[in-house]
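Researcher: Go.
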Amino acid sequence: MLGAAAIGLVVAGGLSYLVQRERVDNRIDENLAQEVEEFRGLAESGVDPQTAAPFTSVDRLLFVALQRNVPGANEGMLGLVDGEVAWVPSSADLRLQDDAPLLGAVAEQGPEAGIRARTVDGASGSLRYVAVPVTVSGDPATGMYVVAYSRDREHADLVDSYRTYVLAAGASLLLIGGVAWAVVGRLLAPLRLLRETAQRISDTDLSGRIPVDGGDDVSRLGHTVNEMLDRLEAGFNAQREALDDAGHELRTPITIIRGHLELMDAADPDDVAETRDLALDELDRMHRLVEDLILLAKSQRPDFVRPQPVELGRLVDDVLDKAQGMGERRWAVDTRAEALVELDEQRITQALLQLVSNALAVTDTDDTVAIGSEIDPGRAVRLWIRDSGPGIDPAQAESIFERFAHGNSRRHDGSGLGLAIVRAIAEAHHGSATVRSTPGYGSVFTIELPAVRIVSAGRDDDITTENTP
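Model: Structure:
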């Protein structure tokens, strides 16, 4: 910031100085031109004011011209006759008669060089001058009328003013530096706090947050980082809880297998066979648990679901066909929507069959298990599994979707990860999994996919719903 401000001040000051100096030089040239015009007016009148007769000599003409003209500040005049100094004003600031470089330049110029302003480095500095050749009819002598201005003295006031400008610019830079230090320090404070917080955070303590006060970009960055830390802490806590729950779930079959192996009578074939069957059964349960945990871990990957156009009605029919082979129930279809939608058919089928498996666990052969699908006016795809089982306690409605949670199932030989997998599949489709239940009247588990694209034809009349008994 100081560098940019300094460059701006230097450029602005430098350009302004050059413009002002050019104006001073132009003013000098205008004054020289005015002096030449006044001398020409006197010479063209040709009348000596003392005799009222025409001038008869160059010497007399130069004398009258210098007598009438009073030199201004930083101005000097002289009259030369035949190359020699003849007349000089007594009140001139510049003593041109003592300036050898100027006299030499005038002598080299000669009467035939023309009348124009010239610059010479004189004994008193840079001079801007004009030399007017003078002749009078009948007088063989030649003269030069010389007027000069000191450029250095004319520029002195300008230089003094820009010295003041340099001091003011330096003071401004100091002020800018102080303000910038305070402002930038305040703006970057969240970054320092971010660094300090990041240094304090470890894999065992993610509770640190950045204190943020303000609404600028850096403050918003602090808010964003705090939100990221919230997500990281929630993710680490969920991972830690999952590992604890997995360890607890795996510890039970391991303990069972170990206990039976320690108590097994190796000499008794029946005991060996019974222990082997029990160990294999527990190992199968452990295998299912590990596979479910791997599936949940994969659900966080962006390629977990691969949406493709799927006929929603055919999907419902396929799930119903597969469900009927899982157990004897009174199977039914509540509604069946006909539309072409984009979703991962295998994952949605897996989620629905998991819900069917849960329904089978809480129902008997004379209970009803139904499947349904619809597309609501908000263009959200909704699929559900309904059962006429004992229902779920409202207090457990949300917790049953957590890992290793068990509902009202009469058997708990599952891993407790089924509904967690259903929710993961729904969320991977940017949807949700919910349950609506009344104890004693059954439950309805619903997968709602509001972000699924309907590619049927984009018209409401292309979507039909059939009620199937």
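Model: The CA atoms of residues 117 and 130 lie 5 Å apart.
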